[in-house]
Write a structure and sequence with these properties.
The protein has 13 helices and no strands. By secondary structure, it is an all-alpha fold. Helix 1 packs across helix 11 (238-259), helix 3 (51-68) runs antiparallel to helix 13 and helix 8 (153-177) runs antiparallel to helix 11. The termini are far apart. 80% of the residues lie in helices and 0% in strands.
């Protein structure tokens, strides 16, 4: 049963990185893909329906941590307090920018939220990389990790790598979800980002092998290979390119997870409530996600209803 809890946690965490990753990436490439106001609203229409559904994965993962990995949850959240505070602030501002951007007329109002969307996405992406880098060096013990370690060279390298991988993932997603000039710009952005993502990923893997001394870091080699495949398929086969960009984002997360599996397994302490509630909740998340992707399977055109 302990392995089942660990598998559920891995599924939720990797799933959240992949799904939230294209939303964060869409924010990073938004100025290039949709520079005009009308195009920016179409971009938000393409991404908006997935916003809350993607966040369900993080809520479910947090619930699983509290219910089945109580000591681990306390160590990670309190230990990386200096990283989680800006991460949560960026998360709130990113969501606010999506919801509020079109709620009032006026160029100044929309420009403010457009800039907030991009800036909060950049901070969010960097903070997720910082979390990965710090966890890869070892799950924090009791007490808060010092800012020197939390924002050290290796976590900063991980932050830059995840930010570029998210940007690539977001560009590929927008290529699949948009039409016309924005779709063409998204494909162009993906082609330019792919070699940068591949190069940074290779450097991150090499440094990870030295810093963590974990052979599981080699799992992340799937990231540069998948990123380069995105470069050749982004324009003509956006569906396949999206699968490859998802793999590029998932590979570093899987590598860190495999390296810390022993610590995670030792922290399993599932309550009776968790055993009763969490498996059905995970099933609901998966069913709802599948339904959402089926409902919004077609690209967004100029005729699509715009709420965001």
């Amino acid at each position: 049963m302990d392995y089942l809890w660990m598998t559920m946690l891995a599924l939720l965490v990797v799933g959240w990185f992949v799904l939230e990753g294209f939303g964060v990436g869409a924010a990073l490439v938004a100025p290039r893909v949709a520079p005009a106001a009308v195009e920016r609203r179409r971009l938000l229409t393409a991404y908006g329906p997935f916003l809350l559904a993607n966040e369900m994965w993080l809520v479910a993962a947090a619930g699983l941590l509290v219910g089945a990995f109580g000591t681990l949850e306390a160590r990670v959240l309190s230990g990386l307090y200096a990283v989680f505070v800006p991460l949560l602030a960026a998360w709130v501002l990113r969501d606010a920018s999506v919801w509020l951007r079109s709620r009032r007329p006026g160029a100044l109002w929309r420009r403010m939220w457009d800039r907030t969307f991009v800036a909060s996405g950049a901070v969010f992406a960097a903070c997720t990389g910082l979390v990965l880098g710090n966890v890869a060096m070892g799950v924090p013990g009791s007490g808060m990790v010092s800012p020197v370690r939390a924002y050290g060279p290796y976590p900063l390298l991980c932050a830059a790598t995840m930010a570029v991988l998210f940007a690539l993932h977001g560009a590929v997603f927008l290529r699949a979800r948009l039409t016309g000039d924005p779709a063409a710009r998204a494909a162009s952005a993906a082609r330019r980002l792919a070699p940068i993502a591949a190069g940074l990923s290779l450097v991150a893997v090499a440094v990870s092998l030295y810093v963590t001394a974990s052979p599981y870091a080699l799992i992340a080699l799937a990231a540069p290979a998948a990123a380069l495949l995105c470069r050749t398929r982004a324009a003509e086969r956006p569906g396949r390119a999206f699968a490859w960009s998802a793999l590029a984002v998932a590979a570093p997360v899987a590598a860190v997870g495999a390296g810390t599996a022993g610590t995670v397994l030792a922290a399993v302490d599932a309550s009776e409530v968790a055993r009763t509630v969490l498996p059905p909740a995970l099933a609901v998340v998966l069913v709802f996600q599948a339904l959402l992707w089926w409902l919004f399977r077609r690209p967004v055109t100029g005729r699509a209803a715009a709420f965001f």
